[in-house]
Every structure is written in C-alpha cells, then in structure tokens.
Design a protein that fits this description.
Blueprint: H1 14-19, E1 27-31, E2 36-37, H2 42-52, E3 57-61, H3 70-73, E4 81-85, H4 91-95, H5 121-132, E5 138-141, H6 143-147, E6 152-154, E7 159-161, H7 164-167, E8 172-174, H8 179-190, E9 204-209, E10 222-224, H9 228-233, H10 235-249, E11 256-261, E12 264-268, H11 277-284, E13 291-292, H12 303-308, E14 311-313, E15 315-316, H13 327-331, E16 336-337, H14 340-351, E17 359-360, E18 362-364, H15 378-383, H16 403-413, E19 420-421, H17 430-433, H18 439-455, E20 460-466, H19 470-476, H20 482-498, E21 503-510, H21 517-529, E22 537-539, H22 547-554, H23 570-577, H24 588-597, H25 603-608, H26 632-640
Parallel strand pairs: 1-3, 1-4, 4-5, 5-8, 10-11, 14-18, 17-19, 20-21, 21-22
Antiparallel strand pairs: 2-13, 6-7, 8-9, 9-12, 11-12, 15-16
Helix pairs in contact: 2-8, 10-22, 16-18
Length: about 650
C-alpha cells in the first residue's frame, strides 16, 4: 500500500509541524529538489541524520523565491540554524544544455515541471535567508556549494568566480558527502558551541578576514593557494591551483587549503578519512519511507525518483579519476562499500513496495564494478597522491578482485520476489580487460563480465569508451580504444554462447579539450567499422572542479601546464558533433565540407559510403587486439586515411 501518514516524513508545512505536537523547530532545511524520502536524495539523508541526532527538523522543498518570500517565512525562525542545499544537481547543469539552451524539464520536480528553482539556487537561498534573518546561522551543502568552494570557472556566465562563500555568506559550508561532518557538527552545537566559532571541523569551509585568529587542529598542515585575484590575472595560476586542490581532495591525509579574496580568506579544512562500511550501513538503516512526500499526490511523477526507486546503491566513491567527472571531487577517490547484509536487506524492502513487479533496475554505484575494492596495503594508499587507481594502468596495489561482487549478484538473484536484477550503472571494462592483472584476477574479471551479460543486462549493456583517439583519451584519463576492440568480440561471444541478442551501447563525448575535427572523423570511421550507429552521445559541458573544465577555461593542462586546444564556439562544437551522425543524410554535405577543410578528402568514401567497413584497432605495443578479417583492399583504405 502507498503510505499516506504524513508523520512518516519530515514535516514540510506548519500544519505538519503542529500535527507532531512541536511548538518550535530546531532546523529548517531548504532544498532545490522536491522532497523524496529516499537514500538517493541528499536532503532526505541529511534530514534523517539530523533527526537521528535528536533534532526537530522541517524541510521546505523548492521554495518560491519570486514572490513575497512567504515560503522562507512560513515556519518562522529555527532554534539552531537554517540549512541549505541546491539539490542533487548543480542548478545550472539542471537548467541548461551544453549549448546553454534552457531545458524544458526538471527531473527533480513533480511532473518534470521546469522553473521550480532559481539559477544558482544555493546562492539565492543563502542570500535570502541572510537578508531576512541576519541573526540566525545558515549552513550550506550539496553538490553546487561543494564543487564551487574555491575559485572556479562558471561556464554559464563565462566567468571565473570566487569561492562560494564570497557570494553567499553562509556561516559554514559542508563539502563532499556530509554524514560524518554533520553528526560532529550537531554534537558541537548541542554542547552550546556557537556556530560562527566552529572552525576546526573536518570537511567544512568558512571565511575569515586576513589576520583574524580562529581555532584549528594542530596536526593539519596548511597550503596557501594563489589568490582569486591572481587567478583572474593569470590563467596558468588558476590551473596550478587546481592541481593542488585535486591532489588534496584525493588524499587520505590532506592539507588545509587557504585562498585569499580581497581582504578575506576562504579556509577549506581537510576531509575526513573514508567512512567505514559500518558507518555507511548506518545511513541506509535510517527510517526512509523510500517515497515522495504525500504533498505531491496527483501532481505528476518525479522523473528522478522513478528512475531510481527500485534500484540499490552498494558503494560510493570512484577511483577512475576521469578528467571530466566530479564524482571523486565530491564523493572521494576511495571506495566505501556497504555490507552484503545491508544491501540484501534493502533489496528485500524494495520487493515489498506497492509498485514493485520483480525488477531491480540497478545494483550499482558511481561505477558498477568497484564494490569492496581497495588497496592491498592501505599504508601505501594513505601516501598516494594520484587521481586515478586505474589510469594509465591498474595500480599494482589495487585489489581488483571481482569475485565478491559476482557472489553478491548471485545472492540478489535468490531473493524471493526478484525476477530480474539489472546493472544500470556504467561498468569499467578497463578493470576487466586491463593488462596489469595476474592470471587469477583476470580470470575472475572475465567471469564477472560473463555473469553480468548472462543475468544482469536488460538487453543493452552500457559502457563508456568516451573517444577513440589515444591523445584525447590520455587527457580524459581513459584507456586506449584498443580495449573496446577487445570488448566487442568478447561481448558477442558470450551472447552467442548464451543464446542472447543483447546490444552493447557505448557512450562518447565530442568537443572535449584536446579533441579536434580529425579526432571526431576518426571516431566516426572507427565506430562505423564496428557497425555502431551512435545514440548515447553528448557535447562536453564544463562543470566546476574538473581537470577538463580547467583546461577549457585556461588553455593549460593543470598537471603539465602545457597548452591544450579546445573547441569553444557553438559553430566549432556543432561541427564536431555532426560526426556522431554520419549516417544521417542531412549531415552528409557538412561532413564532406569539414573533411575537405582538414585535408582528408580520402576519408569521405570511408565514412559516407553505404558499405560497412570493418575497422582495425590502432597498433600499440602489448595490445590485445582481436583478429580482423578485413580484405587487403579494405585494410589499405583504412590505413590510408591516417596519412
């Protein structure tokens, strides 16, 4: 049955507060998302954490910021503080496409309705609250504030902006996944420590005037970054900053960061060490209803909820280190996994949902196949400063054993009521096919892939090679496309042996830093040779706190400070994107024109004729390229386009 008792949720109105018998509220939490009481929604998690700590918490979802601000006034003043989050997504990513066109829907709003939150939602909410209630502390968290905590490039305004607290004067900023820091924070507040004086809490940020004294932990080393003004004057200094920021974000034992902006400094305290599995399990034991609040009854489905309501997240963090991705910047590089018992218990709960019909849509995480993986020697991990454990090759210290995950899948399939358990998260096939594995580990990796293909694919297995050019892939921190050439026949063989007719769906990105027209033409020819007509494609969108965004804005790679070219204009981006759709007759004339422009006329028949061309992978030492049955004539044509 659908739960209709509103007291099962945190209150969202004065009426619901009164129904609980509360005379006052300890914390009022404003969020840019609809209130869905599910562990995949950050507002629900943090709200339940605060409730678990004994606080009376109310949530105001998607407040109206345009009228007389009654949504910001309706619950009055909290006893302790206001809390703010822009939502599960950066509001600008939520609102705009890579071409800066306004989106017509919002997946985190009932009915997918747009315009339920402002641009730069976290900034707007903080400033409204500070203006209305200057005497009440405001704390802020969530992906938007977290990834904008220091000087960052904002693609939508095309400006280098200062750290979040320079434009939205919250008393304290929580970055990353905030469960541990929130519990510690509440403990301090309940002991009567004034919020403005809480300056030694890990994984938080605050501002102070230059020379102003504040409490800190003696064990923390300090690293001072180039000032915001220096970054404005010199793009190379902005790039240098990012390298230090990323290294500290990915460090087990990080330094405190300080960045000056005029007469103030933003102080970023080091993050906590990764949570234990037991600590993560405790989050999922909180009393979530797993449902949207009843206030949304008959107001339309919430698309983001519909996508994940029958899925289960089994771990957090990602050690892939992809240059365009923010997962490690927010969740961390080190994997924190739930226990098997916790995962299986949640799946049993899902099977009891009123609309469950037997299909678990995802048993995964940021990357599906990193569950329980960690360093063989954690002392080595604690000293490591590398952004990726698998690029340019799998780390010798990484325990890359897939057997634990394979066994978990088998147990999931045995749960009563589960007919299908799919893996909807992306799979890192370089962890399966990569060279740097011993024979036993490689065998378990292949066994894992076989298990996934046989039992956990809903007809389409999604993977993300992202590009075909080794030069572009190096910048992306992604493996050579030769590995995809290995994956295709392996996928086909397993399907044939099992009598299946599944599809392999690759994701690709155009206009990524370092990518030129020649690279996109090569991508089109190679994927055509593998008989793919691409569907899952996107233009690169610069988002705060990624290597790729730093390159896009500054023109320099932050680790080498070497210049890198990037397509920036709408015309240049569309010219790259067209190569994804070589099979569309409407694109033919423009593609021909582009190939002539880069002096590759001989590639026109390779790409635009109607014959399938079997491509061969680029030759590299120690590559594991599959045998190719091309005719000599076809091989000669394929090689000639590279000259």
């Amino acid at each position: 049955m659908i739960i209709r008792d509103r007291n099962k949720w945190l209150p969202t109105s004065l009426k619901e507060v009164r129904e609980r018998g509360w005379e006052d509220i300890d914390v009022i939490y404003f969020t840019g998302d609809a209130y869905v009481d599910h562990p995949s929604f950050a507002a629900a998690v943090i709200g339940r954490i605060m409730e678990d700590e004994g606080l009376k918490v109310a949530i105001v979802p998607q407040p109206n910021w345009k009228d007389d601000l009654r949504d910001f006034k309706k619950l009055g003043k909290p006893n302790l503080f206001f809390a703010v989050s822009g939502g599960n997504m950066d509001s600008m990513v939520n609102h705009y496409t890579a071409n800066k066109r306004r989106r017509s829907n919002d997946a985190y709003t009932p009915g997918g309705r747009p315009n339920a939150r402002p641009d730069y939602a976290s900034y707007t909410y903080v400033n409204i609250l500070k203006e209305l209630y200057p005497d009440i502390p405001v704390i802020v968290g969530g992906i938007e504030a977290s990834l904008r905590r220091l000087t960052h490039y904002d693609y939508w305004s095309d400006k280098l902006r200062p750290g979040f607290l320079a434009d939205a004067p919250a008393d304290l900023l929580f970055y990353g996944m905030g469960e541990k820091s929130m519990r510690e924070f509440i403990s301090l507040v309940r002991r009567g420590v004034p919020i403005p004086s809480i300056t030694n809490l890990p994984q938080t940020a605050f501002t102070r005037y230059i020379g102003e004294k504040y409490a800190t932990q003696k064990k923390w080393e300090t690293l001072e970054l180039h000032s915001h003004q220096a970054c404005l004057e010199d793009k190379k200094k902005y790039a240098e900053n990012f390298k230090n920021i990323e290294i500290q974000s990915n460090s087990w034992e990080a330094k405190k960061l300080i960045q000056t902006n005029h007469d103030q400094q933003i102080v970023i305290n080091p993050p906590y060490a990764p949570l234990s599995g037991k600590e993560l399990d405790s989050v999922y034991k909180l009393p979530f209803t797993r449902l949207p609040h009843p206030r949304y009854h008959n107001k339309g489905a919430i698309p983001a909820y519909d996508m994940i309501k029958h899925s289960v997240n089994i771990h957090r963090g990602c050690f892939g280190g992809c240059a365009f991705c923010t997962i490690s910047a927010h969740q961390g590089k080190f994997i924190v996994s739930r226990s098997e018992e916790s995962v299986l218990e949640e799946i049993k709960e899902v099977t009891q949902m009123h609309d469950f019909k037997g299909t678990i849509t995802d048993v995964g995480g940021p990357s599906a196949n990193m569950y329980k993986m960690k360093g063989k020697n954690l002392d080595i991990c604690k000293q490591c400063k590398k952004p990726s454990c698998i690029f340019p090759k799998i780390c010798n210290n990484l325990d890359n054993d897939h057997s634990t995950l394979t066994n978990l899948y088998k147990k999931v399939r045995k749960i009563e009521g589960v007919k299908h358990a799919f893996i909807g998260s992306g799979i890192r096939y370089d962890m399966i096919l990569g060279d740097n594995q011993d024979a036993a580990t490689k065998k378990k990796s292949i066994k894992y892939l076989e298990e996934v293909i046989k039992h956990h694919v809903s007809g389409r297995l999604k993977v993300a090679p992202e590009h075909t050019s080794d030069q572009v892939l190096d910048i992306m921190r992604k493996p050579t496309f030769n590995l995809f050439h290995e994956l295709v026949p392996l996928f086909q063989r397993i399907n044939k042996e099992c009598g299946l007719k599944q599809q392999l769906i690759p994701y690709f990105i155009s206009s990524h830093p370092g990518c030129q027209l020649k690279d996109m033409a090569d991508l089109a020819i190679q994927t055509k040779g593998l008989e793919f007509k691409l569907e899952q494609v996107q233009d690169f969108t610069p988002t705060p706190m990624t290597v790729s965004t730093v390159i896009y804005y500054s023109g320099y790679h932050p680790y080498t400070l070497e210049p890198v070219k990037t397509a920036k204009t709408k015309k240049d981006k569309l010219e790259q994107r067209q190569f994804f759709f070589w099979y569309d007759p409407k694109q033919r004339h423009q593609i021909e024109s582009s190939l002539k422009k880069i002096n590759k006329v001989e590639w026109i028949p390779l790409l635009l004729d109607k014959n399938n061309i079997k491509s061969e992978p680029k030759k590299k030492k120690n590559s594991h390229s599959p045998k190719n049955n091309q005719t000599d004539k076809t091989k000669k044509k394929y090689r000639s386009r590279r000259k």
